[in-house]
Amino acid sequence: MHLWLIPALPFVGFLINGVFGRKLSKTVINLIAVLSVVLSFALVVKVYLTAGDLAATPLHAHYFTWIQSGAFNVGWDFSVDKLTMIMLMIVTGVGSLIHIYSTGYMEHEEGYYRFFAYLNLFMFFMLTLVLAGNYLLLFVGWEGVGLCSYLLVGFYIVKDSATTAGNKAFIVNRVGDFGFSLAMFLIVVNFGSLDFGQVLPAVAGKPTGTLTAIALLLLVGACGKSAQFPLYVWLPDAMEGPTPVSALIHAATMVTAGVYMITRSAPIFTHAPAAMETVAIIGIFTAFFAATIGLTQFDIKKVFAYSTISQLGYMFLGVGVGAFSAGVWHLMTHAFFKALLFLGAGSVIHACHGEQDMRHMGGLKKYAPWTCLVLACASLAISGFPFTSGYFSKDAILGAAYAYAPWMYWVGVVTAGMTAFYVWRAFWMTFWGDYRGHGHPHESSWTMLGPLVVLAVLSIIGGFVFNVPEILSGMFPIAEGAKDAGAPSEMMLTAISVAFGLAGIGLSYLMYVVNTSIPDKITSALGGVYTLVYNKYFVDEAYDAVIVHPLIQGSESVLWKTADAGIIDGIVNGAGTQSQGLGNILKLIQSGNIRSYATWVVIGAVALIVAIGIGGAR
Amino acid sequence: MPAIPNGVPESWYLALSAILFVIGVAGFVFRRNIITVFMCIELMLNAVNLSFVTFANHYKQVSGHIFTFFVMVVAAAEAAVGLAIILTVFKNRSTLNIDEVDSLKN
Amino acid sequence: MVDLLFFGLFAAVAVLCAINVVVQKHPISSALSLVGVMASLAVLYLLLGAPFIAMAQIIVYAGAVMVLFVFVIMLLNAGIEVRRGRSWMATIFGIPALLGLLGVLACLLVRWFPDAPIVKFGDFPGGSPRDFGYALFTQYLLPFEVTSVLILIAILGAVVLARKELD
Fold first, then answer.
1. With an 8 Å Cβ cutoff, are C89 and A591 in contact?
2. Most buried of A69, A610, B55, C153 (most Cβ within 10 A)?
3. Which residues face A489 on adjacent strands?
C-alpha cells in the first residue's frame, strides 16, 4: 500500500531541489518538482482504485512510535478514509496542476530552484496533515504548512513588504496554533490519547463543558489557519507572494486545513452545540464581512483574497450548522474555481507585465482570449450559476443553513449576491472596455494555459461528477437536509440564491460595462462608509494600535531596557565590577614590603594557633 | 611558688621556648637589615629546638632529638642558601635594607 | 636544686642575649649575641638529657652556621643599620601581633600543661650518642638520606648563586 510514498515523493523533490538546485538546469528542476507531485497524485489514484470500500475498512499504516511516555503513546500513523481520500485527491490533483503552471509563470524569476523546493516541501507537509492519523501528526503538518507559507509569501526576499507579510502570516497563524495546542493538551488530559481512532469514538461519554472548551480551542486554531475573523488579517497581505503560491496555499489547500480539521473532529463538535453555533456565526460573519471589503478593492489579487476569506466563511457556516459534507463539498469546488481564479489572475498579471491594479487593465479580451474564457468559467462557478460546481455546493450549505436558522440563510444569500458582484466586477474591469494600461499585453504560454483549462472544466462539471455528500454519506451523525414541514422547499431556496447571484452579475455588468460612471457616483455618495470599507474597516490599524505597538513598546522598555540590560547585564557586569573592587582592595596587601608580609604571617600564625586551640587538637 | 621543686618543671622550659620565639619574631618584624632578620629566624628555630628536646624528655623517646637534628640540618642548609641570596641581592642592589627591596610592589 | 640554679642562670643568659640580638644596631654584635644564645641553649640541652644534641648545637650551629654569618657580615662590610624606609603594617600591627602571639602561647601553655612533671638532670638516659645513632640509622634512615640530598642541593644552590658571572 505504501502510503508513506505519497508525502515522501515531494519531500525527496524538496531535498534534491533544495540542496542541488543551484547547479541544476531549469528543465531538471521542473522535472523533479512536477514529477514528484504528479507521481504522488498517481499513487493517490492507485490507492483509491485498489482500496475497496473505504467507509467500511479505512486504511491504516503505522510507521514508528514517536512518543512513548507512560500510557501516552503517539505514533507516526497514516490513515485513509473517504474524507482523507477526497482531500488527497484535491491536494495532489490541484497541486500538480499548479506545479505545471508555475514552471511557466516563474520562468523569469530569481531563485527558481528555491521556489520549487519550498513548493515541494509544502506538498509534503500538507499531505502529512491530511494523512495524519492523530492530532499531533496533523499538527506537524499544520505547523509545516505555516512555515512553508512564511517561506513562500516572503519569497521575494528583497522586498520589504513581502518579508513583512511573511512574518505577519506566520505570527497570526501562531496565535491560532496556540489555541490548537491547548485543545490538544485538553484532549490528552481527558482522553489519554491523540489518535483519532481512540478519541473520536470516546467523545459521547465526556461532559459537554469539556468538549465545548476543546471545540472552541480547536476553532481558534482553525480560525488562524483558515483566515476567519479575527485572525484573517494575514491573508490579504499574503498576496505579496507569487501568484501560484496564492493559488495553491491560500486558496486550495492550506487554508482549507482548518475546515478539514473541524470536519475530522466532527464528533467533538456535534456533542458541543454551543461551539458549533460559534463556528457557524463566525463563518457567516466572516463571509459577509470579507465580501463587503472585496467589493471595493482595485488590486485583482486582493479581490480574490477577500473572496477566499468569504468562501471559507461559507465552509465554516456549512460545518457549523452540521452540514459537514456540504462544507467539504464547497471546499472541493472552491479549490477548483479559486485556484483557477488566482492562476487566471496570474495569467492576466503576466499578460500585463506585472500590473496588478485593475484600473490599469481593461479590454484584455482581445489580447488574452483563453484567459478570458477560463476566468469566465471560474466566475460563473463562484457566483453559483446553475449547474456549475459552485452552485451545487453553495446551495447545499445555504439549504442546511436555512434549516438551522433562517437568518443565516438570508445573510448567506446576500453575501452570495455580493460575491457574484465583485467577481464579475473584476472580470468586466479586466477584460471589457478599453485597455487603460501602458505596454503590450499578450497571451500566456500553454504551460500556463493548460492547467487553467483543466481547472475550468472541473469548475463547471465538478459538482456533477463528485457528489461529495453522497460519497461521505453516513460519516456524519446529523442527518443533513432535514427540515420542518413549514419551511419553503429546497427548490424555492435554491431559486432565491440563484436569483441573488444573477442579480449580482447583472448589476456588475450595468455598473462596469454599460455605464461606467455609476461606481464613482456611488462612492462619492457613500463617502465615509466607502472609506471605511475601502480601508478594510481599519482592522489592521486597530490591531497595530492595540496589540502590536504596546507589545513592542513593552518589550523595549520593560524586557529590553529593564530586564535584559538592567538586571541581567547588571548582574553579570556587577559580578565583574565587584570582583574588580574586591581585587583592588586585596591588592593593597601586596606592598612589596617584606616587613609587612612578616607581620601578616604573625597575625596568621596567631589566628591559626587560636583555631587549633579552640578546636581542641590536643 | 609554694615550695621550691627539686628540678625544673617542664612548663618552664616551654615558657622559655615561647619567650625566645616571640623575641625572634619581634626582631623579624622590626629590624631592617637583612642579615639581622636572618639571624632572628635562626633564633626562632633554636627556640623550637628547645621545645622538641623538652618533649623528648617528657615522652622519654629519642625521636624528639632526631627531629631536632633534622631541624639543625635544614637550618644549616637554609643559612647557606639564604646567605648566598643575600650576597646576590647585595651585588645587584648595593643595599642590605629590606625596605628597599620592594620591586614586587603592586 | 642545682638543676634549678643552672636553668635559671642559663635561661637568663639566653633571654638577655636574644634581646641583644634584636636590639643591637650593628649586625656583628647581633651575631655574637646569637652565639651566646646558642651556647646557653646547649647547656639547657645537657640539663634535659640530650648530650648529643648539645654537642651538635655547638659544633654545627655555633661553630659552622654562625661562623658563616660572621664571614658574610664581614664580606659585605655591613655597617650600622640605617633606618630608611617604613612599613605601615609593621608599625601599626607589629606590636599588637606580637603581644597576641605571646598571649596565645601563654594561654596554651597554662591550659595544656598545668601540672608538668619535673625534669631532673640524668632522668632521661636515652639521649646518648649511641641511642641517637641507633634510632637515626634504623628507624629514621630514609629521612636521613633525604636530608643528605637536601644538603647537596643547598651546596649546589649556594655555589650557583654566589659565583662570578662567566664572561
1. yes
2. B55
3. none
